[in-house]
Structure formats: C-alpha cells, structure tokens
Write a structure and sequence with these properties.
Blueprint (H helix, E strand, L loop, with lengths): L4 H7 L4 E6 L4 H8 L5 E5 L7 H11 L5 E5 L5 H9 L4 E4 L5 H11 L14 H4 L4 H8 L1 E6 L2 H5 L1 H5 L6 E4 L1 H8 L13 H16 L3 E6 L2 H10 L3 E4 L2 H19 L1
Parallel strand pairs: 1-2, 1-8, 2-3, 3-4, 4-5, 5-6, 6-7, 7-8
Helix pairs in contact: 2-3
C-alpha cells in the first residue's frame, strides 16, 4: 500500500502545510495540488462537494505528491467508510464532543480487530495498492475536530482515545460555542481566552502522544501556528485564495486606470 505522506513527515518530526478544497471540481483540485502543499483536504461538510465530485477530485490528486484527506459531513459510519473506500488517506470528523464519539470515529475508520469498518475498498485498492486491506489501519489518519464547549470539557479524555491520530481545531465554531455567540466568528483568533483555548488543545494532544492541527485564514497566522508548535496547519481554502487573488488584481488595475 502507498505510504501516507503525512505520517512519514510526522515520523521525521516535520510539519504539514495542508490546503482546503471547497470547489467541486477535479481541475481546481489539480491546480491546488501543483502549489507545493503537503496535503489537501476535500471538504464534504461545508464545501459544495458531493460524493461523485469527491471521487473525481481524488482521482486528480492521485497523480500528484500530495496526501489526500477528507472532512466528512458528520460522525456517520456510511459517509466515513465510503470516503475511505474512494481513496482518502485520512478523515477529519467535525463536532467530536465526547470520548465515546471519538471511540466511534476510530471504530468506523479501522478494520477488525481494531474497529468495525466494512470491507470493500472499491477504488482505494487501485489507487493505493492491492494490499490496501492489510495496511490500511496503519496508514489511514483518524482526526477529530474540537469545536465546542462540550468538547473542551472532555478534551483530555478525547485526546486519550486509542487509535486517534490528531486533534483538529475549528476556530470559528469553537469561538462561537465558548463565548455563547458573544464574539464574532472567524478563524484567526486574537482574544486571550481563545488563544489560551487553542494552546490547551495543542497541549492536550501532545500530552496524549498525538498531533495537533489548526485551521487558519492567513499566512501570518499560519506561520504563528507553526511557531506555537502545531503539527499541521491548514491555510485558508481554494475559494478564499481565488477571491483574494482576483480581488487584489481587480483593485490594482482599477486603481491605475
């Protein structure tokens, strides 16, 4: 089976720069893959992407060095297993709030005896190797998103879940939940209480011997995240990059004509 590039880099104590795909198109995914990311995540939760779109995007990524991940819509065994069968090399699951949910996530991702994943890697055996079933448990990443006050209450127990590879911070939902809607939503948090929460999640992950991941919106905050010691940083998304680049170009031309 093809080795998971993220796991290989983490094994060398290196960090991961992850891109985010919200546009349901194989060509735009291929373009993003040419930008020297370590990994790209196909967003099935808030992106405009359906299952058939994701399959085409995974096919486009197969010819590139990037490691393909996917964020599933929810903690749903059917969605998780079909996404893995299509060839994703890791799952990011939103709204994991309890250690029981974290254990369920691991269970859905792992083949027996480590879990209850059903056998049927319809595309994965071709894209990742005919020996996929034998090695998938060791190569597929299991990543739980920490996004709520409830998850913070159960943080250490979630991090200690056997088989979990990383915690992933969703700053917008986390801010909204911890502040009861009092703070404006957004990713690059500057409030002392939110910075403290981000630090606590990172420390809980590392204390449990797993990795810590952070979603950011800007290059400055991405660099800051790496300086804080995060193991994977997601920097914005395809839609944000497209809008920023196009907006800057239009503004530049209009200002000079």
């Amino acid at each position: 089976m093809k080795k998971n590039g993220i796991k290989q880099l983490w094994g060398q104590n290196k960090t991961i720069l992850n891109g985010w795909l919200s546009i349901p198109n194989a060509f735009s995914a291929e373009v993003m893959a040419a930008q020297n990311y370590d990994s790209l995540t196909i967003d099935m939760q808030h992106g405009l992407i359906e299952y058939s779109d994701m399959v085409g995007m995974l096919q486009a990524l197969s010819s590139t060095p990037v490691t393909p991940l996917a964020r599933v819509p929810w903690l749903d065994p059917a969605a998780i297993m079909k996404t893995l069968d299509a060839g994703a090399m890791g799952i990011i699951c939103p709204m994991v709030n309890t250690p029981e949910q974290a254990a369920q996530l691991v269970d859905y991702l792992r083949y027996p005896p480590q879990g209850a994943r059903s056998l049927g890697p319809i595309r994965a055996r071709y894209s990742l190797g005919m020996d996929y079933v034998k090695h998938a448990n060791d190569q597929i990443l299991c990543i739980a998103m920490i996004e709520t006050a409830e998850a913070m209450e159960n943080l250490e127990a979630i991090a200690a879940t056997p088989g979990l590879d990383a915690l992933y911070i969703g700053p917008s939902d986390l801010t909204n939940s911890l502040s009861n809607g009092a703070l404006p939503v957004g990713m690059d948090r500057e409030e002392p209480e939110m910075v403290a929460a981000i630090e606590r999640i990172k420390s809980a992950a590392h204390g449990a011997g797993i990795k810590a991941c952070l979603h950011t919106a800007s290059t400055d905050y991405a660099v800051r995240g790496f300086e804080w010691g995060f193991d994977l940083i997601t920097m914005a998304s395809d839609t944000i990059h497209m809008a920023q680049a196009a907006g800057a170009a239009v503004k530049d031309v209009r200002s000079r004509v």
